[in-house]
């Protein structure tokens, strides 16, 4: 619940402060507001497909509500807002146990472990490096007001890498950069832990493996 509360209550508090100070305010939203997207790549005009009661709904639901509040203040009070949706950002010194695919692959390669990939690794991602992302923040926030004093472009905008690539391509890049021996096996599956159907196309109560087999690619 705290995940939703920090998005909603935090937005209300900061929007009220920005209104009193007549300050410009920026929301770092997320690509997860699109939910389990049926459109690839997602554009800002796409509204998304979300499960309001899934395990991760507290995250993208809170971000969605925060966007609603930002644009409500913008329309009702003329607040100078900027709303950006961040996609797959990666940074140096990511936590080795953070569960992110970039750091997972690097750690697995350096330790000589198998790579665990869902399905064939054909899922696409749009990875954005931190410096590019922050530069996007500043350029977006620095857009001046229009001649009438209204925000010229409040958003939303997607901040990502226009050249998306597959998880398998990412894996091959990590192999090349870490000098890990690239030997792909014909495919050996392992079960995954039970998860919510909101994250996959599996039926409620089933495992992820029932919807998307997880393939272990082994290095020689």
Can you describe what's shown?
The protein has helices at 2-21, 57-77, 101-110, 130-141, 167-178, 208-211; strands at 25-30, 81-86, 88-90, 115-118, 124-125, 127-129, 155-159, 165-166, 188-189, 214-217. With 220 residues, it is of the alpha/beta class. The termini are far apart. The relative contact order is 0.16. Strands 1-2-7 form a 3-stranded parallel sheet, sandwiched between helices. Strands 4-10-9 form a 3-stranded antiparallel sheet. Strands 3-6 form a two-stranded parallel ribbon. The protein is built from 6 helices and 10 strands. Residues 183-220 have low confidence and may be disordered.
Number of helices: 6
Shape: elongated
The total count of strands amounts to 10
Query: In percent, how much strand structure appears in the residues?
Result: 15-25%
CATH level-two architecture of the largest domain: 3-Layer(aba) Sandwich
The domain count comes to 2
What is the mean pLDDT?
79
- Unreliable spans: 183-220
Label this structure with key terms.
elongated; three-stranded antiparallel beta sheet; UDP-galactose 4-epimerase, domain 1; 220 residues; disordered C terminus; alpha/beta; Rossmann fold; three-stranded parallel beta sheet
Strand and helix layout:
Blueprint: H1 2-21, E1 25-30, H2 57-77, E2 81-86, E3 88-90, H3 101-110, E4 115-118, E5 124-125, E6 127-129, H4 130-141, E7 155-159, E8 165-166, H5 167-178, E9 188-189, H6 208-211, E10 214-217
Parallel strand pairs: 1-2, 2-7, 3-6
Antiparallel strand pairs: 4-10, 5-8, 9-10
